[in-house]
Design goal:
By secondary structure, this protein is of the alpha/beta class. The protein has a four-stranded parallel sheet, with helices on both faces. Strands 4-5-3-6 form a four-stranded antiparallel sheet. Strands 7-8 form a two-stranded antiparallel sheet. The radius of gyration is 19 Å and the shape is globular.
Length: 317
């Protein structure tokens, strides 16, 4: 069992997918294998085979990447659930699509139901991006307030450029119309940004350009089989804990067009966890652990995605 101290589950978002994800977990742990099979059955496709063997181009497609990352996080959680039973969960949080995975850890959604939702979400986001093409860019080395000002300046002549992911105090992703995002990027450089990196995405996520997807997603969220969360999930849109399924549904729909307030989410999660709290990132990659260390210096965090990492963690617990 994990030593005493509250746990915060961290669930990664899109971009963390990679060919081979979850394969070693399925081979070593029955609970992981059963979770991935449940997702395959719910979607009616062999998503796990795509996760294990690719091709990468298909795995990266939004409607596949989103349920694949959720499935990986849910599989790790299924293995770890009993290992952390003695440590009371303080909260969970997930970055963008990871917020759905966070509700899986809180028992509000079964992995299969959550996978259906994020697959639908991915389809709707892709459709919105096709109808009105947009783009995103990461701004590094500039304070969020300066990025916000640059976006306002770039949008003054028409078009959309908004802060979309407030990832760290000096890392913000902007989103919107391609020309306006380019102007905003130039304005960020003029204000002292170290780098502005265009991202390979199929739309302007977490911006007003995603508005056409919001109502269909809200309908899917309302139709899903929800339970009340067993512990709070910190919402991307507000950086505040959500304790009721009705609020979860509303905020997940709002999340499509609202910024991911990740800095605020991590600060709030740290408050909920307390001085002895520990963060466990579950799923592919270590991005969230890296961001957390920049937002909450000294935070106790571990990233668990591979079978070896999970096994080592449980042996030490």
């Amino acid at each position: 069992m994990v030593a005493a101290g509250s746990v915060v589950w961290l669930c990664p978002g899109q971009g963390a997918q990679k060919v081979g994800m979850g394969k070693d977990l399925a081979e070593r742990f029955p609970a992981a294998r059963e979770t991935l099979q449940a997702v395959d059955d719910a979607l009616g496709v062999a998503l796990s085979r795509l996760m294990f063997t690719g091709p990468e181009e298909d795995l990266t497609a939004t409607h596949n990447a989103q349920p694949a990352i959720l499935a990986h996080s849910a599989a790790v959680f299924a293995v770890l659930r009993d290992a952390v039973r003695s440590a009371p969960p303080a909260a969970a949080a997930g970055h963008s699509l990871g917020e759905y995975s966070a509700y899986v850890t809180a028992g509000a959604l079964a992995a299969a139901a959550a996978a259906r939702l994020v697959r639908r979400r991915g389809e709707l986001m892709h459709q919105a991006g096709a109808a009105r093409p947009g783009t995103m860019a990461a701004v590094l080395g500039l304070a969020t307030a300066e990025v916000e000002a640059a976006c306002r300046e770039a949008s003054a002549g028409g078009g959309v450029a908004v802060p979309a992911n407030l990832n760290a105090p000096d890392q913000t992703v902007i989103s919107g119309d391609p020309a306006t995002v380019a102007r905003a990027g130039d304005a960020c450089k003029a204000r002292g940004a170290k780098r502005v990196l265009p991202l390979k995405v199929s739309g302007a996520f977490h911006s007003p350009l995603m508005a056409p997807a919001a109502e269909p997603l809200r309908a899917a969220l309302e139709a899903a089989p929800w339970r009340e969360p067993a512990f709070p999930v910190v919402a991307n849109a507000t950086a505040e804990p959500v304790r009721e399924a009705a609020a979860a549904r509303a905020l997940l729909a709002e999340q499509l067009t609202a910024p991911v307030r990740w800095v605020g989410c991590m600060q709030r999660a740290a408050e909920l966890a307390g001085a002895r709290g520990r963060f466990i990132e579950i799923g592919p990659g270590t991005v969230l652990a890296g961001l957390l260390k920049r937002i909450v210096p000294g935070a106790n965090v571990v990233s668990l995605g591979s079978a070896d990492e999970v096994a080592k963690f449980m042996e030490a617990a």
